[in-house]
Amino acid sequence: MLLSHAFGLFTKPDAEWAAIRKEHETPRRVYVAYVLILASIAPICAYVSTAHFGWTVGSERIVKLTEISALQLSVLTYLAMLVGVFALGYAVNWMARTYGAKEEHTPSNGIALAAYSCTPLFLAGFALLYPVPWFNAAIFLAAACYGAWLMYDGLPIVMGIEQDRAVFYGGALLTVGLVILVSTRVGSVIIWNFFVGPVFVG
C-alpha cells in the first residue's frame, strides 16, 4: 500500500526512495491512493479548528469562522494543494532531461517524487487542530525544511541522476515550489476579494 511509504520516509528515506523507484506507479494511482488521502488532513483539521475551536492572537478574544465559510476555504485549500503537487511533479518531469534523468523513469517517478516529498507538509496538517499561529508556523516551517531535504535526497535515487547534479536540480525545484506557493497566495487574495472570502462569527 502506498501509504506505508509515509512512515518509511521518516525512518529510512534512502531505502524508501529506492522502493518507490522500483514501483513505477502511475501518476493517477499515486494521486488516488496517496495524495488525495494525505492532502485532506490539513483542510479537515483547519475546518474543525477554525469553525469550532477558534484562535486567538495575543490576549484578544477567540476568533472563529462560520461553518460554511470554513468549509469553503478548506475545499479551496484542498484543491490548491492538489494543483500544487501536480505542478511540482510536472516541473520534475519537465526539467528531468536537462539534469540527465533517464527518460523512461520520468513519467511515473516525477509525480511520485513530488508527492512523497510533500509528505511532511501533509502530516503537519494535524498541527492545525491546535490553532495557535506561532505553533502552526513553526511546525509547517520544520515540515517544509524536511520536505525539501527529502526531495534533494530522493532526486538521485528516484530520477537516476548523479549526486552532484541533484544540488542544482533540487535548487531549481525549490524555486518552482516557491513560485507555486506565491501563486497560491496571490490566488487566495483574488478569490477572497471577488468570490469566497472568510466570514467571521459575529
UniProtKB/TrEMBL annotation:
<feature type="transmembrane region" description="Helical">
    <location>
        <begin position="167"/>
        <end position="195"/>
    </location>
</feature>
<feature type="transmembrane region" description="Helical">
    <location>
        <begin position="31"/>
        <end position="55"/>
    </location>
</feature>
<keyword id="KW-0472">Membrane</keyword>
<dbReference type="Pfam" id="PF04893">
    <property type="entry name" value="Yip1"/>
</dbReference>
<dbReference type="InterPro" id="IPR006977">
    <property type="entry name" value="Yip1_dom"/>
</dbReference>
<keyword id="KW-1133">Transmembrane helix</keyword>
<keyword id="KW-0812">Transmembrane</keyword>
<feature type="transmembrane region" description="Helical">
    <location>
        <begin position="108"/>
        <end position="128"/>
    </location>
</feature>
<dbReference type="GO" id="GO:0016020">
    <property type="term" value="C:membrane"/>
</dbReference>
<feature type="transmembrane region" description="Helical">
    <location>
        <begin position="134"/>
        <end position="155"/>
    </location>
</feature>
<feature type="transmembrane region" description="Helical">
    <location>
        <begin position="75"/>
        <end position="96"/>
    </location>
</feature>
<protein>
    <recommendedName>
        <fullName>Yip1 domain-containing protein</fullName>
    </recommendedName>
</protein>
<feature type="domain" description="Yip1">
    <location>
        <begin position="7"/>
        <end position="183"/>
    </location>
</feature>
